[in-house]
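TICKET: design request
STATUS: open
ATTACHED STRUCTURE:
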C-alpha cells in the first residue's frame, strides 16, 4: 500500500469532514415522530381502516359488531389524551430556521380533541339503533364516522395552513356521504348535494385565500405567518388583506355563520338523525377551532379588521338562527330536527361572540376559553336533545313537533330529559350550566367594549326562550279533542336509552358544578 503525501492526506481529511457535515444535515431532515402526541387522531384513522376491511369479511348478521368496535376505538382515542395532559408537545417541526411545527398538542388542542372524540363516541352510541332500524350500510356508516372524527381531531392540533385545510376536508368529505346514506330517499340526496356544493364553494374560497397569504408571507406555518404579515411589502398589502378575508369567509361557511347558513336546515332534516347530531356538534367544533387558530394565531395583526367583521357575523347569525327557529310552530307542518337545526345556527352566533371579542382585547386567551366553555356545554345538551329525538322518531317519520304533545304520559323519563336539555339550551334553571355559559359569553362581549353586541345577544336569548319553552310546555300539554291522536311512539332501545342517560348525567353534573366546566375550558390557553 502506497503512503499518502501530506497534501493528499489533507485533501482526504477535508473530503471526510465535508461528508460528515452532509450526513449530519441529512440526519437533521429525518426527524422522530412523537407518536404519543398524534395518537388520538391516528387511532381513529386506523380504526376506520380496520372497520372498512372487517366489513368485507363479516356476515350481514354480524355487522352490528362494527358499531361496538367503533365506539371502543373512539373511547381508546379519548383515553390517549390522558398522558398528554399538562405537557405541551410538538412534532413535524422545521429543522432549520425558526422552530415552527405542523402539529402541536397543547391545552387548546386537547380540549377540542376531548370535545370531538367524546362527541363522536356519543354519536356512535346514538347511531347503533338507527343504523339497524333504517337499514343503513353498517360498514360504510362506521367507516365514514371514524374517518370524519379523525379529521376533526387533527384540526385543532394543526399549526400550518396546509394541514388545517387537509384536516378540515378529511372531517367534511365523509360527512357528505353520511348525509346521503339513506339511499333512494329524495330528501337525503338533496341534503347531501346541498351540503357538498356549499362545502366545495367554501373550500375553493378558503384555498384561494390561503394561496394569497402564502404568496405574501412565504410560509404556511401559523406562527411564521403571524410574524410576517405586519412586515409585508406595501405593494402586497391588498393581496395579503384579500387572502385574510377569503380565508375567514371559507371558515364562516364551515361554521354555518349567516349568511352562509342556508345549507343547514335542509341538510339536517334530510340526514339520519345521528348524523344531524354529529354535524351540529363535531362539525361545528372543527369549524370553530379552525377559525380560532387562523384569527388568534395566524392573523392577529388584522384583528382590527376581523374583530368587527366577526362581531357583525355573530349578531347576524344569532338573529337569523333564532328567528328561523321561532317560525317552527308546534303543528304538524314542522319537524323537531328542523327546529334544532335553526337553533344550532343561533348557537353558532353565540360561539362567535368571544372570538370577535378576542380582536378587541389584549388577552385573547380568555375569549378563547369562553368559546370552549360554551362549546362544551352546547355539545352535551345538544347531543342529548338529538338523542331523545332519535329515540322517539319512528323510521320513515318526519318527526313532527306535535308528536311530542303529552310525551310525559307515555315516556316520562324521556320527556324529563328533553325538557332539561331544552332548558339548558335556553339558559334557564335547572339548566344552570347553560346559564353560566351564556353569562361567560356575555361577559366577554362587555369586557371587549362590545356593548351593542351584548344587547343583541340579550335580545336573542329572550327570542330563544319562546321556542324552547313552547316545545318544553308541549311535552306536558294534553291533546285537544279537535286534534287527531298522534301515532304511538316507539319503545326506547338500550343504546339510545344509554345515550340519553349519559348526556343527562353529564348535563346534571355540569349544572351542579358549572365552575368546573369554566375552569376546564379556561385552561385551554395557547
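STATUS: resolved
RESOLUTION: sequence designed for all positions
ATTACHED SEQUENCE:
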Amino acid at each position: 500500500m502506497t503512503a499518502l503525501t501530506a497534501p493528499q492526506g489533507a485533501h482526504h481529511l477535508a473530503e471526510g469532514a465535508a461528508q460528515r457535515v452532509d450526513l449530519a444535515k441529512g440526519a437533521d431532515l429525518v426527524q422522530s415522530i412523537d407518536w404519543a402526541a398524534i395518537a388520538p387522531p391516528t387511532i381513529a384513522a386506523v380504526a376506520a381502516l380496520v372497520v372498512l376491511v372487517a366489513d368485507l369479511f363479516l356476515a350481514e348478521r354480524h355487522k352490528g359488531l362494527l358499531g361496538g368496535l367503533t365506539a371502543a376505538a373512539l373511547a381508546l382515542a379519548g383515553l390517549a389524551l390522558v398522558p398528554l395532559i399538562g405537557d405541551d408537545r410538538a412534532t413535524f417541526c422545521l429543522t432549520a430556521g425558526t422552530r415552527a411545527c405542523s402539529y402541536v398538542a397543547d391545552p387548546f388542542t386537547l380540549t377540542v380533541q376531548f370535545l370531538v372524540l367524546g362527541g363522536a363516541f356519543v354519536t356512535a352510541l346514538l347511531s347503533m339503533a338507527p343504523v339497524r332500524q333504517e337499514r343503513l350500510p353498517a360498514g360504510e356508516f362506521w367507516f365514514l364516522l371514524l374517518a370524519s372524527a379523525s379529521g376533526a381531531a387533527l384540526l385543532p392540533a394543526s399549526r400550518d395552513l396546509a394541514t388545517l385545510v387537509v384536516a378540515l376536508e378529511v372531517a367534511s368529505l365523509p360527512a357528505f356521504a353520511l348525509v346521503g346514506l339513506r339511499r333512494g330517499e329524495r330528501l337525503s340526496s338533496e341534503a347531501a348535494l346541498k351540503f357538498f356544493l356549499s362545502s366545495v364553494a367554501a373550500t375553493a374560497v378558503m384555498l384561494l385565500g390561503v394561496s394569497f397569504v402564502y404568496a405574501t408571507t412565504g410560509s404556511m406555518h401559523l406562527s411564521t405567518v403571524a410574524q410576517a404579515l405586519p412586515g409585508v411589502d406595501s405593494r402586497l398589502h391588498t393581496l395579503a388583506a384579500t387572502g385574510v378575508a377569503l380565508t375567514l369567509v371559507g371558515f364562516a361557511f364551515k361554521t354555518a355563520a349567516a349568511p352562509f347558513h342556508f345549507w343547514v336546515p335542509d341538510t339536517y332534516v334530510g340526514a339520519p338523525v345521528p348524523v344531524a347530531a354529529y354535524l351540529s356538534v363535531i362539525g361545528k367544533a372543527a369549524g370553530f377551532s379552525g377559525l380560532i387558530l387562523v384569527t388568534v394565531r395566524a392573523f392577529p395583526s388584522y384583528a382590527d379588521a376581523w374583530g368587527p367583521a366577526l362581531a357583525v357575523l355573530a349578531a347576524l347569525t344569532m338573529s337569523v338562527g333564532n328567528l328561523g327557529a321561532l317560525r317552527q310552530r308546534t303543528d304538524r307542518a314542522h319537524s323537531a330536527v328542523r327546529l334544532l337545526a335553526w337553533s344550532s345556527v343561533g348557537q353558532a352566533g353565540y360561539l362567535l361572540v368571544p372570538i370577535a371579542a378576542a380582536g378587541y382585547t389584549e388577552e385573547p386567551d380568555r375569549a378563547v376559553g369562553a368559546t370552549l366553555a360554551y362549546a362544551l356545554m352546547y355539545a352535551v345538551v345538544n347531543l342529548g336533545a338529538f338523542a331523545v329525538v332519535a329515540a322517539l322518531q319512528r323510521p320513515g317519520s318526519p318527526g313532527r313537533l306535535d308528536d311530542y304533545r303529552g310525551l310525559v304520559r307515555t315516556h316520562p323519563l324521556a320527556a324529563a330529559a328533553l325538557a332539561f336539555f331544552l332548558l339548558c339550551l335556553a339558559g334557564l334553571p335547572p339548566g344552570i350550566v347553560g346559564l353560566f355559559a351564556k353569562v361567560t359569553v356575555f361577559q366577554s362581549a362587555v369586557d371587549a367594549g362590545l356593548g351593542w353586541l351584548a344587547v343583541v345577544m340579550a335580545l336573542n336569548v329572550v327570542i330563544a326562550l319562546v321556542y324552547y319553552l313552547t316545545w318544553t310546555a308541549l311535552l306536558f300539554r294534553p291533546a285537544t279533542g279537535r286534534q287527531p291522536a298522534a301515532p304511538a311512539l316507539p319503545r326506547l332501545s338500550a343504546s339510545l336509552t344509554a345515550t340519553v342517560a349519559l348526556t343527562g348525567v353529564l348535563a346534571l353534573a355540569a349544572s351542579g358544578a358549572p365552575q368546573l366546566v369554566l375552569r376546564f375550558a379556561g385552561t385551554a390557553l395557547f
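CLOSING REMARK: The longest helix spans residues 186-217. The first strand starts at residue 89 and ends at 93.
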